[in-house]
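Each field is set out as follows.
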Amino acid sequence: MNPTLSGHTLIDSLEIGDEAFGEISRILETLRNFSISVYKDKCMKRRIAIRMRSCRCLDAAAYCNLLQQSDQELDLLKKTLTIHVSQFFRNPSMFDKLQTIALPQLFQLAEATREELRFRSLGCAGGEEAYSLGIILKEHFARELQRSPVEIYASDIDADILQAAVCAEYGEDRLKDLPDTIKERYFFPNGPRLKLSAKIREMVSFHQQNIMDVGTFQPCHMVLCRNTLIYFTRPDQEIILRGIANILPSGGILVLGKSETLVGDTRRHFTTICPVERIYRKL
């Protein structure tokens, strides 16, 4: 049995060298067809250490042995490496800008082109971001929706997270930025959790997709890619941003997280709408 250490002592003492990291990467790719090569090594090593601590493994060799023997731990590691916790209306000021600036412009575009609007949430996790967009549309753009239908696509690489997103049941912590009137209008108690109403759920479709393939996705008019790029290496950030530029039309909207920005030659494809909220328009 592994010696007992306190949680902080154990995680502070863990070191995952490049050789061990490569072996864990190989195991994931071979047994789960999941590659971590596009993600930042430092971020991935930190998350692997979290699983090592949970399993009471004192070194990377012991953890590699565990991964080769336990399907359950493989699945838990993959979930740890890919999960992105979110909440409804995370960074409310960004959603205010969408409501007052970006969405009115897109509905004007739809009026001019007579196109159905398509929006996409990348790395959607539990669906909170996509559903928040649906709530804004229902609350503030009811007349526009009658003239210009909207489809919201949400994608993530994790099938289990997507299944939870489809169920749309949340703890109170995920709704802490919602006014009480919105909670009462769009959520109802379901045991210890709150379930989102069908009129919002039916606005969003969920898809298991790899963000690295975004350039092959169906064209859309707005892409929300917030707090996702930070996990990727610089070259792969550029690949993702070029892919987003490929699926956005002229006048389309890109929203990044506050700690993210356009990199490399992707800057030439966009002009800034709101620098604080990282909202850009495709040229």
